[in-house]
Amino acid sequence: MAYDATKLKDFEIAEQAEKNMPLPYEWAEKLNLQKDEIIPMGRICKLDFMKIADRLKDKPDGKFIEVTAITPTPLGEGKTTTSMGLTEGLGMRGVNVGAAIRQPSGGPTMNIKGTAAGGGNSLAIPMTEFSLGLTGDLNDIMNAHNLGMVALTARMQHERNYDDAELAKRNLKRLDVDPTNVQFGWIIDFCAQALRNIVIGIGGKMDGYMMQSRFGIAVSSEIMAILAVATDLKDLRERIGRIIVAYDKKGNPVTTEDLEVAGAMTAFMRNAINPTLMSTAEYQPVLVHAGPFANIAIGQSSIIADRIALKMFDYHITESGFAADIGFEKFWNVKCRFSGHIPNVSVLTATIRALKMHGGGPKVVAGRPLPEEYIKENVGLVEKGCENLVHHINTIRKAGINPVVCINAFHTDTKDEIAVVRRAAEAAGARCALSEHWAKGGEGALELADAVIDACNDEVNFKFLYPLELPLRQRVEMIAKEVYGADGVSWSAEAEAKAKMFEENPAYKDFATMMVKTHLSLTHDPTLKGVPKGWTLPIRDVLIYAGAKFLCPMAGTISLMPGTSSDPAYRRIDVDTETGKVLGLF
């Protein structure tokens, strides 16, 4: 049943749908799961992935569908809405289907962006739980991460206060951490610009080690990145042990294993390793697991969620963060390489609104009314903006994957504007479907569902963009030219020195290349729209996530701690003291 999305707000649709949402024991029956594979947590549940993976290990994988997008406006173009709508459309076709999405951060939820549950009749429920911590994974990640910093700062204090003989009595080896070269910081799941740069350890000798430090938002934690790429509990434990928290005064890495805290950090993650089971508004299963940054990390839901979903469902949908130049590229060259899962099709989400922006339309600003050009018909802007669409289609085709363009319909779109997008997509070698899932749910996504089913029957000639043997700087050059459309790459002296060091050390040969840049442009400059020509990608630094096995070349400045706006969402959020219902969250 589809609700009137033009009259009802998202939370009102969710409230109606949640009345009949399957309970944990009903999911067990519906999904043919064993009782001990369901871990009830109120009206939702977690799935014991190790038990499910072991029981279904010999079952063939289902079809694997990835959802990405063109370069978005600051408002986003509805990847999650499309993922939920496609899941509902396939469900309406009688297909055994499920999806996997990321968990939203409390920072954006309480700031400007809001939740990431989709919208209209294509959303994930229950929305309140989804938006306010769900089953505790973010708390587990914060506890595990901050315990690593507790271990580091305590060790630095004790090494300052005790000589080697006293340390030996306490069974401690001197690590001799360089206080000016600490890589780790603290995390909190809010946008708190006041915590970007702090001083800790103020007081006496028993009050810690005084030094500069910082906070990042929880989803930027390396532990979140590790949760997204770990394949099982053993892999998770090993990766956590390799996290570099600092360097000693000789320049050698100091890891969580050196601090003897990696095991305790993993203990906090014993619950978080299991995906949470939610639902679409039309009651298809949705796995929620991990929520890493898409700018600086992998921006995908977890390999673990995909691993069991491909066994549980005949068609499994997963979503990549941001546009195809970031999200799909990392899915293609990192997630697929780490997991061994090969997609059958990629769905490229596009809106007339975003295409007009890339065609030269006025600036789009979140929180402000859209200029008239985005509301009234303007075929010329759409035609010009389709250059961005075609660029992303070509990127997907380079992977040997068949793209399906999804026109995520808005009521202001016109037939002529839609026809322009269809012609451009089909001329570039992609299927194209208009989808009205926001307004009509699964019924509105049937054209998209049929196009995806058809595409899944095509042969896939999957290939990575580069071999792992390719040196880091050559990988970056290839990504910049083949995916972004740059003429080349320029390196700062510091970035090039680091890149040479990583290339010469065999320990980093199999590390993934995790590009860091803005999502608002194909370039490093968020103001450049469409498909810019004649530009060079500047790399100013290279970060290392040793546990996740990422090398992160940075183009531009990316903050690990966003700021809270002057008109954040929390100003409108409250609780009905009679019913306990959360008000104003959506």
UniProtKB/TrEMBL annotation:
- GO terms for molecular function, please? ATP binding; formate-tetrahydrofolate ligase activity
Q: What is this protein called?
A: Formate--tetrahydrofolate ligase
- Give the enzyme's main class according to its UniProt record, as a single word: ligase
**Biological process according to GO:** tetrahydrofolate interconversion
> According to its UniProt record, which reaction does this protein catalyse?
(6S)-5,6,7,8-tetrahydrofolate + formate + ATP = (6R)-10-formyltetrahydrofolate + ADP + phosphate
EC identifiers of the protein: 6.3.4.3
Entry's CDD domains?
FTHFS
The pathway to which it is assigned is: One-carbon metabolism; tetrahydrofolate interconversion
Which sites bind ATP? 73-80
Pfam families per UniProt: FTHFS
Q: Which UniProt keywords apply?
A: ATP-binding, Ligase, Nucleotide-binding, One-carbon metabolism
| Gene name as annotated | fhs
State the organism of origin: Desulfotruncus arcticus DSM 17038
Which protein family is it in? Belongs to the formate--tetrahydrofolate ligase family.
Is Nucleotide-binding among the key words of this record?
Answer: yes
